[in-house]
Design goal:
This protein is of the alpha+beta class. It is 33% helix and 22% strand. The strands form 4 sheets. Strands 1-4-11-12-13 form a 5-stranded mixed sheet, sandwiched between helices. The protein has a 3-stranded antiparallel sheet with strand order 2-10-9.
Length: 282
C-alpha cells in the first residue's frame, strides 16, 4: 500500500452530510474550481528546446502520417528524402512554436484535464485551524477520517498510471520548465509553498468512473460524485462550532446505517491559542 499516514481527512461544511455520509458519495472536483488558481498550471518557459520540438513533431508525423516519408523515399534518393522530411519537420516546428499555437496547445491540455479528471483533496492533519475555518464553515462542519490502507485508495491500473491512487502533494518553489518535459508529478502533484499548511494528499480519477452527476455548481461546472465504500471511513470529527442540528444529523445518519456501525465520533476543540485538539466524543 503506502508508507504515508494511516489516515487522511476531508474537511466538509454541514451541508455535505447528505451526499458524503447519507449517500456515501463524494465529489472529485475539476481543477478549475479549486482554491488554487494555478492547479494543473505549472510555470512554463516554452514548448521545448528546438531539438525537442523537432523530435516531437517528427515522431508525431511518423505515427500519424507514415505515408509522407514513404512517398518521399519512393521519389527521391535516401539523402534527398531525409533532407525534404527534415524541411517539413522544421516548418511544422515553426508553427508549433508560434505564440498563438503554443498558447492554444497548453490551453487544450488544460481543458481536457478539466473536462475529464477530478481531484479529491485530503489532508494528513485534522488540526489545521485555517482549514477548519476555510473548508469546514468556520468549525460548523465536520471531518471524515479515511483509512488510507483501504484498497479504494489504491486503484493504480498499471505501473505508469498517474491517476487512481493516493499521492502526496509536494510543495516547492516552482521554477519554469518546458511543456514537453513536464512530468505528471510536477503538473498534477506539486503546489507552491504557501499551500504547505494543507499537508495534502490527493487522488485524481476519470469522470467516466463517477457514480452520479449533478449540477451545475456555482462555477457552472458539473458536480461529479464518486461512490465511497463505507469501510473506508474510520471516524467523523464534529466541528468545534457545530450546531446541535448538525450533530444530531451526523449521529443519526451513522447510527441508522449498519454499514457505518464501526464509525467512531470525535470532536474538535478550539483552544484560546487557536490550536485544535481532537477528543473522543462521549
Amino acid at each position: 500500500m503506502n508508507d504515508g499516514p494511516k489516515s487522511v481527512y476531508k474537511y466538509l461544511p454541514p451541508d455535505r452530510t447528505g451526499n458524503v455520509l447519507e449517500k456515501l458519495l463524494i465529489r472529485f472536483s475539476q481543477a478549475s474550481v479549486l482554491n488554487d488558481e494555478s492547479e494543473f498550471k505549472p510555470p512554463l518557459k516554452g514548448m521545448g528546446t528546438r531539438s525537442e520540438v523537432e523530435k516531437d513533431v517528427r515522431e508525431r508525423f511518423q505515427a500519424t502520417h507514415p505515408w509522407i516519408f514513404a512517398q518521399l523515399k519512393l521519389r527521391n534518393s535516401p539523402e534527398k528524402a531525409d533532407q525534404l522530411f527534415a524541411e517539413i519537420v522544421s516548418a511544422a516546428a515553426d508553427q508549433v512554436e508560434s505564440p498563438a499555437n503554443y498558447e492554444r496547445s497548453v490551453k487544450e491540455v488544460y481543458r481536457k484535464l478539466d473536462e475529464n479528471f477530478g481531484v479529491l483533496s485530503l489532508s494528513e492533519t485534522p488540526l489545521s485551524a485555517l482549514m477548519w475555518a476555510r473548508y469546514a464553515d468556520g468549525g460548523r462542519g465536520f471531518l471524515i477520517e479515511f483509512d488510507t490502507q483501504h484498497t479504494w485508495f489504491w486503484g493504480k491500473r498499471n505501473e505508469g498510471d498517474s491517476f487512481n491512487h493516493l499521492r502526496q502533494v509536494k510543495y516547492l518553489e516552482r521554477t519554469p520548465t518546458y511543456f514537453l518535459n513536464l512530468p505528471d508529478e510536477t503538473a498534477l502533484y506539486t503546489k507552491s509553498i504557501e499551500w504547505s499548511y494543507e499537508k495534502e494528499w490527493r487522488i485524481i480519477r476519470n469522470f467516466n468512473d463517477a457514480a452520479e452527476k449533478t449540477g451545475p455548481d456555482g462555477h457552472n461546472k458539473n458536480v461529479l460524485l464518486f461512490a465511497v465504500p463505507p469501510s473506508t471511513i474510520n471516524s467523523v470529527v464534529i466541528g468545534y462550532n457545530a450546531t446541535g442540528e448538525c450533530v444530531q444529523r451526523l449521529k443519526s445518519t451513522v447510527s441508522t446505517n449498519a454499514d457505518l456501525s464501526h464509525v467512531k465520533f470525535q470532536r474538535a476543540i478550539l483552544n484560546d491559542d487557536a490550536a485544535i485538539d481532537i477528543v473522543l466524543e462521549t
